[in-house]
Every structure is written in structure tokens, then in C-alpha cells.
Amino acid sequence: MVVIGKIVKSNSHVEYVCQVYNPGERAEVPTPADYAFGRFVRVLSAQAGQPDLIGVIYNTILMNPEFGTLGPRLSSAPELEIFSPDYLSEKATLVGILVVGSMPPAEGPAFQGIPPFSAPVDALVMPLTREELRRFHEGEAGPRLAYIPHLRSQAHPLIPHLLLNILDQVIELFPEHKEQITVLREGLAWQTYVQPMS
């Protein structure tokens, strides 16, 4: 399974920043689909036996220190690879992750809510597989979405769109519960698109 990147900082107990691996940093480079908006991810635990954190990508930040430096350069980018192979590119793609629960690496029930433990710096981040995503949402009588109030409490303008994206994913995972989830989605869509204009 591809590794998206590593945790480089946190803004709170549930909000993390992951630096996406660039070409050359790992054998398998993550694709944009691996760290797309609304993608569920697993933040690997540093301790054996401790569940991994489960989060969802809600934001992307592009870092380019060269922006605004319009002066002449002694070497072009291709020349740097030849004359300065140890040159470190400071360009980076960062993704914001909101933690919505935890899940054991193998078997065991998933937890939805705010975990008591945090992720360490440099923890690896991997996209959830379809099977893992279904397992995280499985409840006794259908899909569980206990983390929705937690996400709605976050003060970020992209959260309503993130929730719509998540509900679309859950509908695809649990087609037998499409009607119930669609009712929730339509109410949220009205609050997101229609209510602000009235």
C-alpha cells in the first residue's frame, strides 16, 4: 500500500498536517488521488497494540519558497541535479487531516470520536482501502456516522463540502441504506447551498 507522507505538525489534538512525499523520497510516489479532498487516511501508531488514528483530508497547502524571488539564478533546476545532487528542494505539498476516530491495524471494532492519544511527529499516513473504510463505518444496524457533530463543530469553510463528500462515499459503500443517508445529505446540502442565500 502506498504511503502518502508523514505528520510534520499539529494544530490541535485532532488537526494534523501531513507532508506529502515528493518523487525520489520513496520507491512508490503517492498520486493526487491518494491525498485528495475527502480521502480517509490511517495515521500509523508508533506503539505496538495501540490503534491507528483515522482521519479525513480536508485541506491542501502548496509550499513554494521560490515564489517571489524573481532575481537571476546561478543554476537552473536541471543543472542543480547534476552540479548539486545534495540540493534539497523546499517545495512541498501539505494536507490537513482531521481525526475522526481510531481503528486497530488488523481486527477489532473501530472507534468514532476523539481518541485519547495523539499521533507522533513523523508518523506515516496511508490512504484507507475500500474495505477498511467500510469497516470503519460499519455499525450494528447500518453505517455509523458518530463523528459528524465533531466535524460540524470545526470552524472551517470547507467542512460542509467535506461532509457532503463523505456522505457520497458512505452511500457508495452502503447502497442498501441509500435512502436514509440521502435524507441526511439533502438536509446538509440545503444548509450549505440554499440557506446562506436566503
3D architecture notes:
The chain has 198 residues and is an alpha+beta fold. It has one domain. The chain is 26% helix and 23% strand. The protein is built from 5 helices and 7 strands. It has a 6-stranded antiparallel beta barrel. Helix 4 (159-173) packs antiparallel against helix 5 (178-194). It is globular, with a radius of gyration of 19 Å. It starts with a strand and ends with a helix. The mean pLDDT is 88.
Radius of gyration: 19 Å
SSE pattern, N- to C-terminal: EEEEHEEEHHHH
Q: Percent of residues in beta strands?
A: 15-25%
Strand order across the largest sheet:
1-2-5-4-3-7
Reported for the largest beta sheet, the result is: 6 strands, antiparallel, barrel
How many H/I helical runs? Answer: 5
Low-confidence stretches: none
Shape: globular
What gap, in angstroms, lies between the N and C termini? 46 Å
- Fraction of residues in helix: 25-40%
Count of separate structural domains = 1
Question: What's the β-strand tally?
Answer: 7
Derived from helix and strand composition plus strand pairing, the structural class reads alpha+beta
Average of per-residue pLDDT values: 88
